[in-house]
Design a protein that fits this description.
The protein has nine helices and 15 strands. The protein is of the alpha/beta class and 337 residues long.
């Protein structure tokens, strides 16, 4: 059984492919054989050693895996064998562990999947779970008819676009190229703004006749974050779910006061708000599983790489050039389920 392991933190070169003993199903556990493994920012933060919920070294990064149950432990119904399932580290006691051909997990951590669902699409669902929360939970009941998505062509960004369009929202998004703009329109964007050539807030305001949007969603932060407040409409909300570009240089409270006539608000969102709320954590995941099963959403996969290429997959995500989700498969021949 092959897996990726890291003995130290650093760049993609610390990810090492090894042969390891096959996991055994302890009582109350199952063994899942991977068909598709998601690559995302939590994996990269683990590799860099800066993840707040860092697992102890040595470790295998990887937060999401889809496959089939191949063994069950004592106390688990053997009828589960052969079932398609999704494993996400959000349901596990320790983050990471999914960059492996097989993994043993508690049976109550599994999400059962319909048999007709493609597993490489299912492994994208944790991105959709984040997106669902950003659109439907973070506003806390405030009506949202329009949304701006910073980085709409990425894994979470493309999930946001599809879910927003499914909910009947008008969708605006920022891109860095014509290729990404075309992709964004394909997945539901009504308007795209190239942030390399235009002021994004000015353009959103122009496109909305000065009214602005109800919701702006950001994962970058950085010096441009306060400017996003200008594009918000009355009672508009800016939700930050990451800060890959660092903290804003400008005083955020001062920026809020400058736009006070529209009563804007800022909220931080992290999936860890559900760490001690299993019921709602699983509810939001089941919501997007149901949408995938019905065909309402179609996860977009940027690239499929073999497990041995995990380092290259990390470099691709960090560069931000992909369109959708980067997925690892045990082998490219098997990763077509």
């Amino acid at each position: 059984m092959r897996k990726i392991i890291m003995h130290r933190t650093g760049g993609p070169e610390v990810l090492e492919l090894i042969e390891a003993p096959a996991p055994q199903a302890a009582p109350g556990h199952v063994v899942v054989e991977a068909e598709a493994i998601g690559v995302g920012w939590p994996d990269i933060l683990i590799r860099r050693g800066i993840y707040r919920w860092m697992p102890p070294l040595p470790t295998s990064p990887g937060s999401d895996l889809a496959g089939h149950v191949i063994d069950v432990g004592e106390g688990v119904d053997s009828a589960l064998i052969g079932s398609p399932v999704l494993v996400t580290a959000r349901e596990l006691p320790v983050r990471g562990g999914c960059y492996a051909e097989q993994i043993a997990v508690p049976v109550d951590a599994l999400f059962r999947l319909p048999t007709h669902v493609a597993l490489d699409a299912a492994v994208c669902l944790p991105n959709y779970q984040v997106a669902w929360n950003l659109l439907h939970e973070a506003p806390r009941g405030q009506p949202v008819q329009s949304v701006f998505i910073r980085g709409i062509a990425g894994g979470v960004g493309s999930a946001l676009a599809q879910l927003a369009k499914s909910a009947g929202m008008k969708v605006f998004g920022s891109v860095s190229s014509e290729q990404k703009a075309a992709f964004a329109h394909q997945i539901g964007a009504d308007h795209t703004i190239n942030y390399t050539t235009e002021n994004v807030a000015d353009r959103v305001l122009a496109l909305t006749g000065g009214q602005g949007v109800d919701l702006a969603v950001d994962h970058i932060g950085g010096p441009d974050l306060p400017d996003l407040l200008r594009m918000l409409g009355r009672w508009g909300l800016l939700v930050s779910y990451n800060a890959s570009g660092g903290m804003p240089e400008k005083n955020l409270l001062a920026a809020l006061r400058e736009n006070g006539v529209r009563c804007p608000a800022v909220r931080i969102f992290e999936m860890h708000v559900y760490d001690d709320d299993r019921v709602n954590r699983r509810r939001t995941m089941q919501s997007v599983i149901d949408l995938l099963a019905s065909g309402e959403i179609k996860p977009m996969i940027s690239d499929r790489l073999e497990l041995a290429d995990a380092g290259r997959a990390h470099a691709m995500v960090e560069a931000g050039h992909g369109l959708g989700k980067v997925v690892l498969v045990p082998s490219l021949d098997r990763g077509k389920a």
